[in-house]
Each structure stands twice: as C-alpha cells, then as structure tokens.
Design a protein that fits this description.
This protein is α/β, with parallel strands linked by helices and about 200 residues long. The protein has one domain (about 5-205): Carbamate kinase (3-Layer(aba) Sandwich), CATH 3.40.1160. Helix content is about 40%, strand content about 15%. It has a 7-stranded mixed sheet, sandwiched between helices. Helix 1 (about 20-25) runs parallel beside helix 8 (about 185-190) and helix 2 (about 40-55) runs antiparallel to helix 3 (about 55-75). The two termini are about 25 Å apart.
C-alpha cells in the first residue's frame, strides 16, 4: 500500500463555512488519506468544565479524545465517500478500498504511551498516528495566517499554533506541512497525487 497522507483538520474549522469545502477536496482524493479531527467545540466544552467540576488532567485527556471522536463522527457523516475507522486494521482496509478515511481515535488515542495532559492535543495525536502508519506526509490545516519562513515545529509550539508536545511527537514523520486558510487549492493538488509545493503549503522544518 502507498504510504498515506495524514491530514489534521483543525477543530477551529468545525463551525467555519469553509469546512465543507475542505471536506469536498479530501473526499475526492486519489491518494491514500487519513483525516484526524480536532476537538473543536466539543473539546472547548471539556476545557470550560474542568475548572468548574475539578476533574484531573487524565480525565480531561480522555474526555478530549471523546471530543475528537465526536467531531470525527460529524465529519464522516457529511460525505458518503468518507469512511470512519478506528483501529489500524480498519484504517488499512478502507485505504485498500481506495476510500478516504476519518480516524475515530477510540481506542488507539488512549494508548498508555501517549501522555495524558493538555500539552498533548489532536496535533500531537495526528503526529503519533502518522508515525504509526508510516505516513508520507502530515498536513496540519488550521485557520491561521501564513507563517513567516523558516518555520519550525518548536516555533509553532511557542506561538501556540501547535501543542507543546508536537515537536517531539512529530520526530520521525518524513514531511510536515502547515496549510493556512488560503491553501485549499494547494491541498486539492496534493489530493490528486502531486507533491506539496512549498510556495503554497508551509514546510515545517
């Protein structure tokens, strides 16, 4: 099987008008692709509730994984071409059928090797899954302005664009890219099998 491209679809897109445009491009992919959903408003509810209820970070982490699963369910329901899959066998089976996949992070996202704290969000989980699937590329789609070059994972973490654990979790992923809100056509080209262009997608060094 050709190494897949993992696409992290940021939770900030959950309520954005452009969400369906991104999904249309992904659903029409001619290359193996796995979508990792952010937590979006579902994870925001966990963050807001933690100081009020007082549950610990381990519980918050598990609840945030559930938030990602909720957004994944929502995404998969928006286009019949998208397949919701959880374990590696299900992911591989869908990719073998040449179907674009939305990852349900339960139960893999609860792997004990993944730290249970807020420093580890869906960004790091996307990097973790990319390593596990031996992905060719990890593309982070976020509603951010294009970043000044050069861009490093460490600098993005310092700016709060990715979580603090991301630089370490992403080590070993062959190619990391940041897609800003103007990069939809660039993603469309990648989904047709073209190599990512550094003029349209930001390479993370």
């Amino acid at each position: 099987m050709t190494a897949p491209t993992v696409i992290k679809l940021g939770g900030s897109l959950a309520l954005a008008p452009a969400l369906r445009e991104w999904l249309l491009v992904i659903a029409a992919a001619r290359v193996p692709v796995v979508v990792v959903a952010g937590g979006g408003p579902f994870a925001d509810a966990v963050r807001d509730a933690q100081p009020v209820i007082g549950f610990d970070d381990r519980a918050a982490h598990r609840m945030a994984i559930l938030a990602m699963a909720q957004f994944a369910e929502a995404l998969a329901s928006l286009d019949v071409r998208l397949v919701l899959a959880d374990r590696e066998e299900a992911l591989a089976a869908a990719l073998d059928r040449q179907r674009p996949v939305v990852w349900n992070p339960l139960p893999l996202g609860l792997d004990p090797e993944i730290p249970h704290r807020w420093d580890v969000t869906s960004d790091s989980l996307a990097a973790w899954l990319s390593r596990r699937l031996a992905a060719a590329h990890l593309i982070l789609i976020k509603q951010v302005a294009r970043q000044p070059l050069p861009v490093t994972a460490e600098a993005l973490a310092e700016r709060g664009i990715v979580d603090r654990a991301f630089p370490e979790m992403a080590r070993g992923v062959p190619a990391l890219w940041l897609a800003d809100r103007a990069a939809l056509p660039a993603l469309g080209a990648v989904m047709k099998g073209r190599a990512p262009a550094e003029t349209t997608l930001t390479r993370i060094g």
